[in-house]
Amino acid sequence: MTVTTSANVSTAAMSLSRGRIEVLQFFRDRTAMVFTFLFPAMLLLLFGTIFGDSYDETGVSASQVYAASMLAYGVLTTGFVTMGSGLALDREDGTLKRLHGTPLPVTAYLMGKAILVLTLSIAEAALIILVGVLVFDMPLPDASHWLTFAWLMLLSVLTCSLLGVAVSAIVKRARSAGAILNVPVVALQFISGIFIHPITQLPSWLITVASLFPVKWMGQGFRYVFLPDSMKSMEAAGAWELGRTALVLGVWCVIGLVLCLATFRWSDKDR
């Protein structure tokens, strides 16, 4: 028991240490900060300004809907793209190979990456919410909705991060990672009700396809947190479906974990 506890403490300490290194490295790269951290807020300003009219039956502006929905986009790009491209780069430049020769376990390495993603996602969410409140008059939710925001954010970050780790195995070159990973990201935004709202404007079969993936449920969950209850009529099922949101994200967490265990390699030679 003592040995196990000591090992757990050591892994936790190494995870925190690795996470600190990942965060410092990221914030030293100004290009990455702009395109990863600021891009969702820039898109929000663009969409919110162009499509800012109110929905007649609710009085809620389209810009406020985009502000809530864009939180899902921010988490997806930060978790999926940052994690996937980061692992591909670490594998290509030999970072993973060097770390493999140290006492750092794979769990601590991946937890370090997860700390980076969580840190960026929270900061990015704060920026998007700030823009939504100050620029588009999006009201802040009450305490119970903030609790929903907390578990939704954690599940969303975990899901996207695990899938990012898994998909990094198919990225052969780090320079092509962005192009490869952004294809499903952009496609899912359009069919999941993030860039197009209400989602009921889409064909029913396309909504069914989107419902198989986590992004649709992430966007719907964040809209529940920040929008009035009258807006649920514009969702595909005419309801917020928080229970189903948690279930779908939980299932994708399991799928992502299984894929991670099956595909993670310290170097290309291990494939």
Distance between the termini: 35 Å
Encode the helix/strand succession as letters: HHHHHHHHHH
Total count of domains: 1
- Work out the strand percent: under 5%
What is the approximate shape? globular
The Rg value, from CA coordinates, equals 19 Å
Largest sheet: none
Helix content: over 70%
State the helix count. Answer: 10
Q: State the oligomer.
A: single chain
Stretches where pLDDT is under 50 for at least 5 consecutive residues are none
Q: How many extended strands?
A: 0
Pfam families: ABC2_membrane
GO molecular function, one term: ABC-type transporter activity
Membrane topology: Multi-pass membrane protein
Transmembrane segments: 32-51, 71-89, 110-136, 148-171, 178-199, 205-226, 246-266
Offer a few descriptive terms.
single chain, 0% strand, transmembrane helix, mainly alpha, Transport permease protein, transmembrane, 271 residues, 10 helices
Provide an overview of this structure:
This protein has 271 residues and is an all-alpha fold. The protein has one domain. The protein contains ten helices and no strands. Helix 2 packs parallel to helix 5 and helix 5 crosses helix 6. It is globular and about 60 Å long. The mean pLDDT is 85.
